[in-house]
Amino acid sequence: LTEADRDRQSKTETARDRQIQTETDIDRQTQTETYRDRQRNTETDRDRQRQTDTARDRHRQRQTDRDRDRQRQTERDRQTPTKIDRQRQRPTETDKYRQRKTETDRDRQRETEIDRDRQRHTDTDRDIQRHTETGRDRQTDRHTDRQTVTEIDRDRQSKTETDRDRQ
């Protein structure tokens, strides 16, 4: 290559490098602007959310205040009974009968539960008794077995001695 060719090639490479650098700078600038736009949008969204939350909180507070006022009025109305209300508050014969029946049913239920508990205790005591008797029977069986084994051993010993004496 000639000197002129090398100079042209060098200038071309330099121009290409500058072009790449310019494109890189433009990309960086675009990314920076995109980031700033996103940041602004995020802040705007947060502001809107705060405004929405504040409005919702105010609405809830007003609703709560109205509900509380209604409740107070209802309590006031309830505390000043009318003649009909006073008559309604007196128990009727039917109410008295129902109350007595409920109490009787409750008493019967308690008695039934007490009877069941007693039966369970009786069953448990019976099981314990059987277990104890079974234990005693086993103990007696072992003792009887030992006596029988001892008697058999004595008989063998006696037979052995008798056989010895005969010889």
Shape category: flat
**Beta strand %:** under 5%
Number of strands: 0
Query: What can be said about the biggest beta sheet?
Result: none
Helix content: over 70%
**What does the average pLDDT come to?**
87
List the uncertain runs.
none
Category by helix and strand content: mainly alpha
SSE run:
HHH
Looking at the chains present, what oligomeric state does this protein adopt?
single chain
Distance between the termini: 140 Å
Tell me what you see in this structure.
By secondary structure, the chain is mostly helical. It contains 3 helices and no strands.
Spell out the blueprint of helices and strands.
Blueprint: H1 3-79, H2 83-89, H3 93-166
In a nutshell, what does this entry contain?
The protein contains three helices and no strands. It has helices at 3-79, 83-89, 93-166.
Identify the notable features of this structure and list them briefly:
flat
